[in-house]
Amino acid sequence: MIISVLFLLISVGCSKSSSSGGTSSEDSYGGSLNIAISVQPPTLDAHLTTSSDAIEIMRNIYETLVTQNKDQQAVPMLAESIETSEDGLTYTFKLREGITFHNGKEMTSEDVVVSMNRWLEQSSRAKLLLSGGKFETADEYTVTLKLAEAVTDVLPESVT
Predict the structure, then answer these.
(1) Residue 23 pLDDT exceeds 60
(2) 110 in a domain, yes or no?
(3) Taking Cα atoms as reference points, which of 91, 92, 63 lies closest to residue 78?
(4) Alpha-carbon distance 148 to 131, whole Å?
(5) If you ran DSSP here, which 8-state letter would residue 37 be given?
(6) Which of the two residues, 140 and 40, has the higher pLDDT score?
């Protein structure tokens, strides 16, 4: 019985179209995905929480400058590229162009600097890791992170 139900769920989930004229995933994007979670997160403000449940939820809502690939290595996401100075005190993030917010406004370095400096001020994790650091705008699509002292675990060399 359980195997029959699993087979039905798998076959329905894998079908390309419906008899009511649906299109395949190759033709359209969008829609909704509803997920049940077993906890109530204390907040969805990524800068104010250390809750692992909230962080897992937020990974599905927010995009970041850097993310992890399948091998747990840091790779650019909203950043196009990242350069690290030889002394390890300056990180330069070249942003991907054409990224828009939900309201259609394009993301620029000014948006990133405001968000990331708020993170440095509010997050206990950021305060611990990047004490004395500051994000600055270099140009419309370039952000720099300047550190007071070199920190070995800011970003692994795989993203540079």
Answers:
(1) no
(2) yes
(3) 63
(4) 7
(5) -
(6) 140
Place of tokens 């995933």: 25
Provide the β-strand partners of residue 74.
68
Strand partners, 18: none
Give the domain CATH number at 98.
3.90.76.10
Q: Are 90 and 143 contacting, i.e. CB atoms less than 8 angstroms apart?
A: no
- Report yes or no on 5 lying in a domain: no
Assigned domain for 113 exists: yes
Please report which confidence band the pLDDT of residue 10 belongs to, taking 50, 70 and 90 as the band edges: very low
Domain count within the chain: 1
Residues β-bridged to residue 76: 66
Distance CA 81, CA 21 (A): 42
Interatomic CA distance for residues 55 and 80, integer angstroms: 23
B/e letters for 125-160, b = 16+ CB within 10 Å, e = fewer, are ebeeebeebebebeeebbbbbebeeeeeebbeeebe
Tokens describing residue 37 = 């979670």
Q: Give the β-pairing of 134-139 and 142-146.
A: antiparallel
pLDDT tens per residue, range 32-89: 888 788 888 887 777 777 788 877 787 777 788 888 889 888 889 999 999 999 998 9
Q: pTM for the complete prediction?
A: 0.68
pLDDT over 80 (residue 105): yes
